[in-house]
Amino acid sequence: MPGIWKKITFSFASLLNIASVVLTVVALSTEKWVIGRILCQTGADLVNASDPELDKFIGDIYFGLFQGGKIWKCGLGSRRSKIYIFPRLVKKLNGGLHMIIILFLFVAIGFSFVSLAFCIYNARKIPYQSIKGPPGLYLWNFIAGAFGMFGIVCFIAAVNQHRLTERVANFKEDIFRFVVLEEEYDFSFWLCVASTATHGTNFIVVAMSKIHFPKIQTKKPDEPSVTAEDFLY
């Protein structure tokens, strides 16, 4: 049976793996990966709007990996519309890259579960094979963190290099054209970053499990020594 310190560290590592899975699932299911402000360029050009009047043509947009929404203004007040990435919008985007992002995140979730299983095993038993011990935990956490990082990098590339926000904003717009004025990553994106960071923290926790604390030894009282001379007296 592992010692108390190892049980504590591996239990904490298990909690980190659970947190990683929860954060990634929440990030996938929420709609705030990117938020931004969009200008209805067509409406602004029709009335030749100047700076004070541009507020009537500036709306908001937000979206995640599966859905989102936008509030657009083209001079006739605010209008809301829902955005669904699947099944049609993904064809207008870089569909292959978008599917790779989702695939990477699901693979990261899968290896997080593998790491969780090995953490529970190490908290209960002493493994006889190195792959089931700390070396295996390093490997599974590295793979999970790497796939999570790949997904994040691919999403950043989609936003910056493939004009993801502009394509989402202009989907199904035959009359109006929208221009992205501002865009930034929101809490769903940062949840995914935090999920990936937990695997780096797990490296430290697993390394701490190898710390051996010195055993506290109680000093035995000195036993009286009796010699032959003592018996003479």
TrEMBL record:
Pfam families: Clarin-2. It comes from the Eukaryota. The chain crosses the membrane at residues 12-29, 97-118, 138-159. GO terms for biological process: sensory perception of sound. It is a multi-pass membrane protein. Keywords: Membrane, Transmembrane, Transmembrane helix. The keyword Transmembrane helix applies. InterPro entries: Clarin. It is found in: Membrane. GO terms for cellular component: membrane. The keyword Phosphoprotein does not apply. Belongs to the clarin family. This is Clarin 2. It comes from Paramormyrops kingsleyae.
